[in-house]
């Protein structure tokens, strides 16, 4: 009796997974739906940003995105959060965006590459050692 119940539960779960597109049965509907949701979310973000940014600030943010995608994403997230919480009274100017960039940079330490050169390396006198070869 328990085996029949377990089989029914498994069958119901399998049907549920197939309906969601995760059944692994070759259905590509789930992937299309995920792409659609991602595209819709990106459009919503752009819509919000176009409403809260002045054109110069939007241009600067676009240039930042070309250089450092993660930094632009952090700034966008913060701007959207401020807009949703009602803390923005007017459109964000380029100067205000620069200040926000500074605040984001202070909160997030970036990895710095340190180059340490060896002391006592090659110099011009060492070239004479190989002249006889």
TrEMBL record:
Annotated InterPro entries: PDCD5-like, PDCD5-like_sf
Biased composition regions of type Gly residues, renumbered to the chain: 20-32
Assigned GO CC terms: cytosol; nucleus
Basic and acidic residues composition bias: residue spans: 33-42
GO MF annotation list: DNA binding
Biased segments, Acidic residues type: 123-133
Family under the similarity heading: Belongs to the PDCD5 family.
Protein name: DNA-binding TFAR19-related protein
């Amino acid at each position: 009796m328990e085996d029949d119940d377990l089989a029914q539960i498994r069958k119901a779960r399998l049907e549920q997974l197939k309906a969601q597109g995760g059944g692994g049965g070759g259905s590509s509907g789930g992937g299309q739906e995920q792409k659609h949701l991602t595209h819709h979310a990106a459009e919503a973000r752009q819509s919000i940003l176009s409403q809260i940014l002045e054109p110069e600030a939007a241009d600067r943010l676009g240039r930042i995105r070309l250089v450092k995608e993660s930094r632009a994403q952090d700034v966008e997230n913060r701007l959207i959060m401020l807009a949703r919480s009602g803390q923005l009274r007017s459109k964000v100017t380029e100067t205000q965006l620069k200040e926000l960039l500074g605040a984001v940079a202070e909160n997030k330490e970036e990895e710095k590459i340190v180059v340490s050169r060896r002391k006592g390396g090659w110099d011009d006198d060492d070239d004479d050692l190989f002249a006889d070869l």
